[in-house]
Each structure stands twice: as C-alpha cells, then as structure tokens.
Amino acid sequence: APGTFGSAARTSVVWLGLGGDVDALRALAGRVETAVEAAGLPPERRELRPHVTLARVRQRASTAQRRALAAAVGALDAPGPHPYRAVEVVLVRSHLGAGQPRYEVLGRY
User: Fold this and answer.
1) What's the CA gap between 42 and 90, in Å, rounded?
2) Is the pTM of this model over 0.70?
C-alpha cells in the first residue's frame, strides 16, 4: 500500500510497500546493518519496511503542501497485488546536497 515517511507536516517521501517473499531483502538489510555497526555507527532501531520510493518532497515544500500530499496519498486505494519478481536488487547511495542529486551503486544482488 502507498504511504509516506514523516508526519503529515513533515512528509518527505512517498513510497509503495513491498510484500511477499522479502527474506533475501531482509537478509541484505541485516548485512548492511552489521557493516554499519562495524563502522562504529549507531544501529537502526526502526523495523525494516521494504518499499519502493515513488517520490521525494523538495526541502522548500511548505507545511501546507506536505500535509496536502500526505492526505492525498492516504486517500489512494491500495493497488491490488501485482506479482513482480525482482531479478536484481541494487544498493545505491544517494548524495543529496547543493545541486543535482548524485547516485552511486554500491552493490548488485
């Protein structure tokens, strides 16, 4: 089902949840988490929510715009099950800053 990350006033991402057999994805996330901790970074406390990012909200979006987007996404009907078998998962690092975002492929699984 579609959803957003962040409270309605701080909506930052629109996403579509993934279901089905996500064991391999969870295993990959576990390996990433192990690497994060080995690097001395704090572990992620939130539960993994497998998803596909559909849109990101620009930083300059107003609170009213963010609330309107969250309400619109919340009113969407969840799409029916559409079987899809991923043949590859690509781990990508996003470099977000001034200018255009840059994406770096870290691994393919």
Assistant:
1) 23
2) no
Among all chains, which residue has been given the structure tokens 């969840």? 78
Per the CB < 8 A criterion, the answer to whether 105 and 95 are in contact is: no
Residue type, 74: G
Domain regions of the chain by residue span: 2-81
Q: Are 63 and 12 in contact (CB under 8 A)?
A: no
Nearest to 41 by CA among 50, 32, 29: 32
Q: Which residues of the chain have pLDDT under 70?
A: 79
Residue partners of 6: CB distance under 8 A and separation at least 6: 12, 13, 66
